[in-house]
Design a protein that fits this description.
Layout (H helix, E strand, L loop, with lengths): L1 H18 L1 H4 L3 H16 L15 H35 L4 H6 L5 H18 L2 H15 L3 H20 L6 H9 L4 H24 L23 H25 L3 H23 L12 H4 L5 H19 L2 H12 L4 H12 L4 H11 L13 H12 L9 H10 L3 H7 L1 H22 L3
Helix pairs in contact: 1-3, 3-14, 4-9, 4-11, 4-12, 4-14, 6-7, 6-8, 6-10, 7-8, 7-19, 8-10, 8-18, 8-19, 9-17, 10-18, 10-21, 11-12, 14-17, 15-17, 16-18, 18-21
């Protein structure tokens, strides 16, 4: 019991420091790695309390086997993220998104709002909400000169990016985790969560459009920002088609081969890498070309490794809680407290995801609740579909509730207080409306 208390205590303290990262100025990846090591080190004090151990000197081997089993599962998510991040960076740096920027130009404030909303929504489903948010903010900076107007657009980018990522198996880290775990399928989450996610974006966009009237100043809009590239227009389009089209092909690849999603991502990366190397053949004869610096070998050094290490640390720390049985007991407690109401349980989890990181929340839920063969806890069951929606969309209710919100907050200097006063209630209306529609969908449109 003492060992259990110590492990839970370390996790809670580490989680607290992750939540107050902005105050401590200590990167959350460092805290997550310390949590990982500390939890498993304490586990070694009395491993026999949690797992069967062989007689003799095989204790260390038995514990190592448990850790390696969890590490193997965690690595599938990490390799998927690393591959996806490299693909997106390569497409962006070589001008693949240039035509997207050109499509956004308009004089009407409200027309721009809807273009931004839908482009962000669908791009986030294909890419990830963090990268999509950065791309859209860069576009906005060239199209909207008034900062007061721009932060309204930027706030909608946060909402649309989180909503778009929630219905796609590759649109958000949490849906990637759920998909890798096998609790949702690509076809299932798209079919059931697409409309709730769309509602959670459209309703806030309607409300926010009332505060935008008139036309935009065209100063500085002579040309939308474009990434500099020595590739031809046809080559840039090819990079975009292979990169983004390849990401969309990953779920299809998994359904055909039944291989883990990260294998499909590595296939796309390999193809895109090969194609860009062929394009660079002629550029190598011109050493002054800046594009030579944008080869995949250079892109790999630009991957945000702190994010990868954060996921490694937090997922392995949560794995320790799962091994000692804490998550299972917590799941039983929640079901008892709310009488098994999955809408209420996942709704609360969504609200919590706006306060604290949704990655450990979802990782914890996957450890708390077993996968059944039938019912609400089966693959693509009500609980898992709602968890994908709530954990993704719920992060929009506070500016610090998602990776997209945090990066937009930094880029556009949006304060926590301003967002909470002007946007939080709008995001919550969309969030609740999406849950309500899902209830109607499940109860009347597709009764189980």
């Amino acid at each position: 019991m003492t060992t259990t208390v110590l492990i839970v205590g370390v996790f809670v303290i580490g989680y607290l420091f992750i939540a107050i990262e902005s105050l401590t100025k200590v990167n959350k990846a460092a805290i997550a790695l310390l949590m990982f090591v500390a939890c498993w080190t304490i586990f070694m004090l009395n491993p026999g309390q949690y797992i069967p151990l062989p007689d003799g000197d095989g204790v260390a081997s038995a514990v190592s086997e448990v850790i390696e089993k969890h590490l193997g599962s965690t690595s599938t998510t990490l390799f998927f993220l690393m591959g996806a991040m490299t693909i997106v960076e390569l497409v962006d740096q070589n001008g693949g998104f240039n035509f997207v920027r050109g499509m956004m130009k308009t004089k009407s404030k409200r027309t721009l709002l809807w273009r931004i909303a839908f482009m962000t929504f669908f791009l986030s489903a294909i890419l990830d909400n963090l990268t999509t948010s950065i791309v859209m903010i860069m576009i906005l900076r060239k199209l909207v000169s008034d900062h007061k107007d721009r932060i309204i657009y930027a706030s909608l980018v946060v909402i649309a990016a989180n909503s778009g990522g929630a219905f796609s198996p590759i649109g958000d880290v949490t849906t990637i985790m759920l998909w890798n775990k096998g609790v949702i399928t690509a076809a299932g989450v798209i079919k059931e969560i697409f409309i709730p996610s769309l509602i959670s974006m459209v309703i806030p966009a309607l409300i926010m459009s009332t505060s935008l009237n008139g036309e935009l100043s065209m100063t500085g809009q002579e040309t939308a920002a474009t990434a500099q590239s020595d590739f031809t227009s046809a080559q840039r389009k090819a990079v975009f088609a292979i990169g983004v089209g390849g990401l969309m092909f990953v779920p299809v690849f998994k359904s055909i081969t039944h291989l883990p999603p990260f294998v499909g991502i590595l296939l796309v990366l390999g193809v895109l890498w090969t194609v860009t190397e062929v394009f660079y053949r002629k550029l190598r004869r011109r050493p002054e070309s800046g594009s030579v610096q944008k080869r995949v070998t250079n892109m790999l050094s630009r991957i945000d490794m702190s994010t990868i290490l954060f996921f490694l640390g937090i997922l392995m720390a949560v794995a320790c809680l799962e091994t000692i049985g804490v998550l299972t007991e917590l799941g039983k407690g929640l079901n008892t407290a709310f009488d098994g109401n999955h809408y209420l349980v996942t709704g609360i989890i969504g609200v919590l995801s706006s306060i604290i990181d949704n990655v450990p929340l979802v990782a914890g839920c996957m450890g708390m609740y077993p996968i059944d063969t039938i019912g609400d806890m089966a693959q693509d069951g009500v609980f898992w579909q709602l968890l994908a929606y709530c954990a993704g969309v719920g992060g929009s209710m506070l500016i610090v509730g998602s990776a997209a919100g945090v990066v937009v907050m930094g880029l556009e200097k949006i304060t926590f207080g301003w967002y909470m006063r002007h946007v939080s209630w709008i995001a919550m209306v969309g969030y609740i409306a999406g849950i309500a529609y899902y209830w109607v969908e499940r109860t009347f449109l597709m009764p189980m």
